[in-house]
C-alpha cells in the first residue's frame, strides 16, 4: 500500500511540475513561496490586531509567532527523522525535475516547512480572526494552499510532503488558535 501511495505521489508531482506548466506560472510560483512577498500581510495583521484589540493584539502576535516556530521546528524534526529525498535531490528523478528556484535544499522533503508554517498561521488566523474577516476568513487557507502548491510546482516537494505539512500545520494552528481564544477571552462566533 505504501509503495503504491509513493508511486502515485511521484506521478502527481510530475503532472504538476512537468505537465501543468505555463509561462506565467513559471514566473509567478517562485515568488509565491518567498517569505518577503508575504511580509506586507504579516505587517497588516500585526497592525490590525494591535489597533483593534490593544493588549490582546500583542498576545495574538506572540502566539502567531509561537505557532510559526512550533510548526517550523516540528516539520524540521520530521524531515530529519523521515529522511525522504527531495525530488530535486533524488538521483533517479532529478534530471527530469524542473527546478524553478536557484537552489535545491539539502534538507529532507517530508514534511514541507512552508506548508506546515503557513497552514499553522492560516488556521490560527482563521480561528482568531473569523469575526473580523467574516466570509473572507477562508482566504487564509487559499494563501497557505497557494504556497504549498508553489513548493510542488517549483520542484522542491512532493504532494505528500505538502499534505503532511498542511496536516501538521492545521493541528498546530488548531491548538494555538484555540488556546489563544480561551486564554485571552477572544469572542468568536
UniProtKB/TrEMBL annotation:
Transmembrane segments: 36-53, 59-78, 136-156, 162-183
InterPro entries xref list: PAP2/HPO (IPR000326), PAP2/HPO_sf (IPR036938)
A single GO molecular function term of this UniProt record: sphingosine-1-phosphate phosphatase activity
Keywords associated with the record: Membrane, Transmembrane, Transmembrane helix
Protein name: Phosphatase PAP2 family protein
Positions of the Phosphatidic acid phosphatase type 2/haloperoxidase domain: 59-177
SUPFAM superfamilies attached to this UniProt entry: Acid phosphatase/Vanadium-dependent haloperoxidase
Source organism superkingdom: Bacteria
Amino acid at each position: 500500500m505504501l509503495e503504491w501511495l509513493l508511486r502515485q505521489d511521484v506521478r502527481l508531482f510530475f503532472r504538476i511540475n512537468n505537465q501543468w506548466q505555463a509561462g506565467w506560472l513559471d514566473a509567478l510560483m517562485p515568488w509565491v513561496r518567498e517569505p518577503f512577498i508575504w511580509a506586507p500581510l504579516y505587517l497588516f495583521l500585526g497592525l490590525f490586531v494591535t489597533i483593534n484589540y490593544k493588549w490582546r493584539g500583542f498576545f495574538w502576535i506572540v502566539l502567531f509567532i509561537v505557532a510559526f516556530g512550533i510548526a517550523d521546528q516540528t516539520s524540521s524534526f520530521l524531515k530529519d527523522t523521515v529522511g525522504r529525498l527531495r525530488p530535486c535531490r533524488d538521483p533517479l528523478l532529478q534530471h527530469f525535475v524542473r527546478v524553478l528556484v536557484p537552489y535545491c535544499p539539502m534538507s529532507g522533503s517530508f514534511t514541507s516547512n512552508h506548508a506546515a508554517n503557513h497552514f499553522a498561521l492560516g488556521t490560527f488566523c482563521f480561528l482568531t480572526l473569523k469575526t473580523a474577516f467574516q466570509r473572507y476568513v477562508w482566504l487564509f487557507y487559499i494563501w497557505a494552499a497557494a504556497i504549498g502548491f508553489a513548493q510542488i510546482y517549483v520542484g522542491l516537494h512532493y504532494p505528500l510532503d505538502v499534505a503532511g505539512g498542511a496536516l501538521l500545520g492545521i493541528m498546530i494552528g488548531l491548538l494555538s488558535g484555540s488556546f489563544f481564544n480561551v486564554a485571552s477571552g477572544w469572542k468568536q462566533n
